[in-house]
Amino acid sequence: MGLPMLRLENITKRFGPVVANRGVSLEVQRGEVLALLGENGAGKTTLVSLLYGLYAPDEGRILLEGQEVVISSPRVAQRLGIALVPQHPELIEAHSVAENLALGLELPPFFSRRALLQRLQALLQDHPLGVDLKAPVHRLSAGEKQRVELLRALLSRPKVLILDEPTSVLTPKEAEDLFREVRRLKERGLAIFFISHKLDEVLGLADRIVVLRAGEKVGEVRREEADKDLLVRLMVGRGVAPPPKAPPPREEVVLEVEDLLVPRHGFPLQGVSFALRAGEVLGIAGVAGSGQKELLEALAGLRPYRGRVRFLGSPLPQDPARLFALGVAHIPEERSTGVVGGMSVAENLALRTYPRYARGGLLDYGRMEREAEDLMRRHRIQAPSPRTPLRTLSGGNVQKVILARELKEGPRLVLAMHPTYGVDVGAAEEVHGRLLDLVREGGAVLLVSEDLDEILALSHRVAALHRGRLVGPIPREEASRERLGRMMTEGRA
Ligand SMILES: Nc1ncnc2c1ncn2[C@@H]1O[C@H](COP(=O)(O)OP(=O)(O)OP(=O)(O)O)[C@@H](O)[C@H]1O
């Protein structure tokens, strides 16, 4: 093997008392995909942020093609040929795709819009990612936004490409398309870092796998030597079991939706009818942007709709605060909408029940923090203290905060969209366990997920949304990945 494209030597990065990376050394070659695996908070995002100039390491050095480099900002990273596709799309929602891409270019002082569009079209031809340059970003699904971020990264013609959990919100088909593109980039000689919690993807794409635990490198295996079991054990130090089967649902109907209509761009959601019983999980699959998000947001009181919706026999109020008080929890698609980054972990955990902490015109922070400590322990939320600002938590830990808050009152109905988005395999097992506990106690779960295995593992019945219309539901026993795939893409059961 020649000189590695990139080499990290003894990298340590601290945030106050937290050691996010401790003495990490690794290298990646040209034309190689290196996967970084590890539990939530293990230090993966921090490590790649150092490579992209978002933070400076406290110790250690970085060598690019044998030369030591100081990556002091993302601009410097780009000039050195290092590009990053972030965990969450960081696009300007009000602007078009083309405008967002233009922001990543070093353009001359005067340039014509046409010339810019031509250059972007050429890029699209080279990387056929199926992106509409003129579409405003706020109309794109999470998967489409991810592709725009990838295009933006490719604009600088990088030598090193970092993909931080790029498939969390992609459908299996979108993920396959992305992988095809990643393989092409690899063949062109790019060195690629790939972070994912999905072990099948890691095994399908990576040449080598580095496992981090609590900031330290605890393992490095070549693809040929790896299997799922080994990777799970390296990551969490134990094996992980598939979720147990939930008992059959009860008679009582918790949610009844009749002829729901939600106006939206593209295909409006219409004629959607289904009933959800106590103790039942109804899984809804769908190609991103088929109306899943709108369905859950309408039921969560965040979007106007027409139609008849009854919750435990009474009309469902269209007000998020009243809904929560009645026992309706909501796990939103994009976790950034479910939390306030500048507030502490304790405040975020208390967001739904703030008035409860009022004492003589002030907030009882002592009580809030004690309760937060308890929830943090139970949900294994990694943060130095309940006072830690939420925005400093790792992505998976933010997701755990949302889950802890939404499930803490024992809701009757959970509207869950990608509930295990970005959480590690151990934590995903716990989330599934919590949802099933709730179901056993008579709660109902409307589960929207793009992970078909998750839907098939948890649901009693499954349905798909196809262009705004509901296909199914059908009993779980009659469903398979293939049949669900057809329901999603062809609109028939
Ligand atoms: N800006 C920051 N300030 C303080 N602590 C931070 C900051 N960024 C990260 N951390 C902490 O560093 C540790 C590593 O976080 P990091 O985001 O790198 O984990 P990760 O492996 O990417 O996790 P996930 O799988 O959940 O995305 C965590 O304990 C996190 O809370």
Automatic annotation (TrEMBL):
Keyword Iron-sulfur: no
Domain of life where this protein originates: Bacteria
Entry-linked SUPFAM superfamilies: P-loop containing nucleoside triphosphate hydrolases
Protein keywords: ATP-binding, Nucleotide-binding
PROSITE patterns according to UniProt: ABC_TRANSPORTER_1, ABC_TRANSPORTER_2
GO molecular function: ATP binding; ATP hydrolysis activity
InterPro entries registered for this protein in UniProt: AAA+_ATPase, ABC_carbohydrate_import_ATPase, ABC_transporter-like_ATP-bd, ABC_transporter-like_CS, P-loop_NTPase
SMART domains, sorted: AAA (SM00382)
CDD domains with a match to the protein in the record: ABC_Carb_Monos_I, ABC_Carb_Monos_II
Domain ABC transporter: 6-239, 249-492
Protein name as catalogued: Nucleoside ABC transporter ATP-binding protein
Organism field: Thermus arciformis
